[in-house]
Each structure stands twice: as structure tokens, then as C-alpha cells.
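Obj.: predict assembly geometry.
Materials: sequence records (below).
Method: joint structure prediction, all chains together.
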Amino acid sequence: MSETYGDWYKWGKAVLYLEMVIAILVTVFSLYMAFNGQAAGIA
Amino acid sequence: MTNKIEQLILATVAFFWAFLMWFSTAAFSPSIGDFYGLTTGQLAVLASSAIWLAPPGRVLAGWAADRLGAHNVFTIILTYSGLVSIASAYASGIGVLSDFQVLFVERMIVASAGISFVVGIQHVAQWFDEHEIGTAEGLYAGTGNVGAGVGALLLPRIYGTNFTDAFLHLGIVALLIAVVYRWRGEPAKDRATAETAKANTSLGDTLFVWTRFAAIALMLGYAMSFGLEIAMNSWLPSYYAEGFDGAIADLGFTGTAAIQTAAGTFAAVQSFNASLFRPFSGYMSDLWQRKGWTPYPLLSTSQPYSPRVHWLMTALILITVAMVALTLVGLAGILPASVVVLAVFGVTVSFGTGGVFAIVPILFEDRPGTASGFIGGVSTSGGIVYPLVYGYVPNIHMGYAIVALAFFVPFMLVYLWAMRYEEDPREHGFGSARRWLGGDETAPAGGDD
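Observations (raw C-alpha cells):
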């Protein structure tokens, strides 16, 4: 494949990774609550 | 900033706001219920009403984007939904309609802002090249979809029970975005691209897209992913509250408010993963395309975009497996394991949503809006159908496996069958291309299918 990618693609991938990190953090938080319940201090 | 990045940001911000408005009613359900003295049944109707306008609305909006230009259609949607959102902040009875009935109608109109999804898909498709379309569409749709989760998380915290101020402010910002979209938005990267889309909006063109087996297969694929995502958004809080009531009580959550918060937090895992991994799926589609991966023997391998079709097949298989896993882990009654499986499930759903719209603009490059409207619209019916099945099944955990076997396995078989053609799959459908488009279009190689 010889297609070239503009500068935007690099930044687009950075946003993509950032969004995945946010999703993982929400999952970890939810999992933490599933183990610790009220002790997690959110409800 | 290159112009296509500006257009991508415009579409993404506008769609994010439209999604925020779509689900803002749900975020204030308890407050609205208290204020108007609503029953649980009335609240359920209010919540489900948000989805009812999506299938026909998206079909119409997609066609209009091709016909009028995405920047014009997005401006229209944000303007009317913004104005009605402002009006809903002051909802009061008119004639025979009660205060709540007026609010219900107004919020249903505001919720129709969600139809703008297909308009943005069309807009992005008109600007980005084929080899980077997956990532671009993924960034647009994934970031925009987060509006639902952000609304559920932040609106009640910012406004408390004051939903009137929230509706007022959401409407004002929508009007501001509409002004900017109209000012800076351009329909396509060049006049020829815009004219091509505009020229292909006749009834024949529309029926041509609706009758293609490939379009129907992609619509079913989207019903397996996005249709499932919005079904789970509305279903999962009740599922965790009921299906894991013992485990949640053991964790110390007692009382309706605490149980709802806990169940909502577990449910949010699906919403965030399904939205935020969507750009990654578009990126994976681009990667498969770049590497030329075509592992499935039954699917076509000779189309210029075949690797993207194979990536989507992978996603559909993973979604089905994840549904069965949700049932198994639910039957085992292990809450933390269920949360982990739900996170994986959300990621597989994002693979499906991102995978479908990495193909649609390429397969129907001359009719991106009409195709997006059909595929993104009709598939939304899944958001209504699946929860009905979940609720009907006696064991609350079994619903996922039943939907997987009764709906998703047949959907995948249709996908395999429709995408098997080594020649152009657009030539295969109910009626030939010549029949729908007239004599100057290529007739299908194999005649009518």
C-alpha cells in the first residue's frame, strides 16, 4: 500500500489511545467498586 | 489546520451535543417523575420514546444529507432540537394536553437530535480518503457517542434536580453550534463529490440501496452492534439491580438510590467501552485493509475493501461469543467477573459499530447519506426489540444467549451469504441495478437475484 497519511492521522491515533485509556479507567473504577462496594465511597 | 480536520471536529462536536440532548431526558428521569408525579410505567414510556423516532428519522436525514449537504441538514436538526429544548424548559399544558403530555412531545422532538448520526457519517465520508475512512469515522462516531455517557454522569451532578435549567442551557448551546456549523461547514472536499451525492437521491436510488443484499447484511451487522449498544444502555441498570441484587446488597448498597447508583456504575462499563473503543475499531479496519488480511474462506477476498469485510466478520463473531459469556457469568452469579465480561463485551460491540461504518461509505460512495440512513436507522430497532426479549425470558441471565442464538447467528449467516460474491456485491439484491437506476447503469453480471 502506498497511501500517505496526513499529520491529522498521528493526532487522530493519539485521541484514539486517550479514549481507550478513559474507557479502561471507567472499567477499573467499576471493578474496584464491585470488590469494595460502599467502601469505594461513590454511593 | 487542514479543512478536513475542521469538518471532522465540527461534525464530532455537533454529534456529541446531539447525543447529549438525546439522552438528557433519561438523566433527569427521577426528577421529572417527582415533579410531574409520574408512574414507573409513564417514566418507561418517556425513556423508550427517545428511540422510536430514530429509525424513520435517520433514513430521512441520511437522504437529506446527500440531497441538501450535511452542513445544512445538521444546522436544521440542531436548530429545531435546540429551540424545542428551550421550550421544554417551560413546558405547560396546551388545550387538552396536560403539562406532562406537552413535555413528552417536546422531549421526543429533542431526542430526535440523535438522527444526526448519519448526517455526520455522510459529512466525514465526503471529506476523507478511502484508506483513512475507518479511523476518521471511528473518531467522529466514538467521540460523539460518549455524549450519552457524559450526560448520564455529569448532568445530574451539575444541575441536581433542576432539569429546566439543563434543558434551557442544552438548547442554547445547540443553537450556537448550529450557527458555527452553518458558517464553517462545507458539504464535501470538492464540488464534484457533493454533486455526485446530490445527483443520486431519487426514489430509484433510495430503493436501489435498500434492496442491496450487502446493505441489508450491514444493517443487520449494525443491529448486532449499535442496536445492541443502545438496548444495553437502557437494560443493564435494571439487569444488575435485579440479577445481582444479593451481591449488590452484600457490598453494602441498600435503598433504591444506592442500588441504582451501583447498578448504573456497572452498566456504564458497557457504554464507555462500546463508545470509546469505536475509533480503535475503525483503526483496526484500516489496519486489516493495509495488511490485506482475509482469513474467512466463505467471504469474498477479491474486493478492494475485502479485508474490512473480514474484520467486521471477526467483530460479529466476538459479539456473539461475548453475549453467551454474559449469560454464563450471570448464571454463575459472580459480580466482578460479570463486570470484566461486560467490559470485553463493550469492546466487541465497538468493533462491530466501527467495523460497519468503515465499510458503508466505501461500498456506497456515491450514496453515502442514503446508505448510512438505511443502515444506521433501521438497525436502531434492535434497541427496542432486544430488551423486550430480555424482559420476556423467565431467567434474567438467559436473555443474552437467546438473543445471540435466535438473532445474531442468523444475522451472521446472512452476512456471510451476502458478502460472498467475488464480483461487485452491489450488483446483487432484490431487482437489478438497471431496474432501480435506469438504463445507463451497469446491469448485474448474474441477473436479478
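Conclusions so far: Chain A has a mean pLDDT of 76.
To do: check interface contacts against the pulldown list.
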